[in-house]
Amino acid sequence: MYYSTNYSSPVGQITLASDGGNLVGLWLEGQKYFGGTLPGAMTQSDDLSVFAAAKEWLDKYFAGKKPAISDLPLAPIGGQFRQTVWDILCRIPYGEVTTYGQIAREAAARMNRPSMSGQAVGGAVGHNPISIIIPCHRVVGANGSLTGYAGGINKKIQLLELEGVDISGLFIPAKGTAL
Q1: Is the pTM here over 0.85, yes or no?
Q2: Is the pLDDT of residue 67 over 80?
Q3: From 130, 136, 153, 162, active-site residue
């Protein structure tokens, strides 16, 4: 059984999901793939301790503090490749960005492969079920493109600016998957 609660944030309404003990989802309102990794329906429940911890984490984050991802029990649902990519995302420092290509190289090394497709990495990043906390917003195109955020480019920009990222060298693509 899965449980959900809501959180009002500076980037809009957020839905949190839990398996009862771990956080399994965090989606922005209108986000692509909303709830897509959950094999069952969610039941509203506002009194789980994991939700209280996640809301406290989010309060700190939106106040400009740098809460540790390890402070929360996370259990995103996905296969080995996606888990590898999501683990790499968790290691991107607050206030910094990386590229899909850099993640692909690291994922390939971890999985003992000679190479990895940046597009495959993009798919795993886009299907990240715990947005913001697993910081997929910190991934940009190799050319500085702000592409690929399932929550929308405007929210990606808001999150990067909150973290103090200099976005002057980044740009919104004319067309792409995140528009």
Answers
A1: yes
A2: yes
A3: 136
